[in-house]
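Need residues for this backbone.
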């Protein structure tokens, strides 16, 4: 058996030092070692976006991202995103009917937060492109897309 590797990283503002399998995926580290279960396990193949987290502000599919790639980096999960922008995104998704079973929702919220931090004025085409890697089996996407445009229109994207 391979020896464990030592991962030092910051998760939601807190420094963590963890022993991980050398090829362990970040999703498993977050869910199983840190018990951050808001990061959802879907396809495990990088296709559905349910496991999206931010590494140094950039969205990654944590099911195909080696935990050791996060060495020295800053990870944000849905549990750590409690700024005004993320709250506006969550409220808008609920108000626009963009959530049903909710399994995909954390991944969408993380991805939309990353998008609007960078592009507070994101237009529909940019939103569609940004969300193309996130799958929702329930809502048909219209409510989620409407929610993003609602946040953009309210200027909440500039609040943080
Ligand atoms: S579980 Fe990671 S992309 Fe589907
Ligand atoms: S709300 Fe059920 S998968 Fe999106």
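Answer:
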């Amino acid at each position: 058996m391979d020896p464990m590797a030592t991962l030092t990283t910051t998760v939601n503002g807190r420094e963590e030092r963890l022993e991980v399998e050398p090829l362990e995926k970040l999703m498993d580290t977050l869910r199983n070692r840190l018990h951050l279960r808001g990061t959802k396990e879907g396809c495990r193949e990088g296709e559905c976006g349910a496991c999206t987290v931010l590494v140094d502000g950039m969205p990654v599919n944590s099911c195909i991202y080696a935990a050791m790639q996060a060495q020295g980096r800053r990870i944000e999960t849905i549990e750590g995103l409690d700024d005004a922008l993320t709250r506006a995104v969550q409220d808008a998704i609920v108000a626009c009917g963009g959530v049903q079973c909710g399994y995909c929702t954390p991944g969408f919220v993380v991805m939309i937060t990353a998008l609007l931090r960078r592009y507070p004025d994101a237009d529909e085409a940019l939103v569609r492109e940004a969300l193309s890697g996130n799958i929702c089996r329930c809502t048909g996407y219209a409510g989620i897309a409407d929610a993003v445009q609602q946040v953009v229109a309210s200027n909440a994207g500039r609040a943080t």
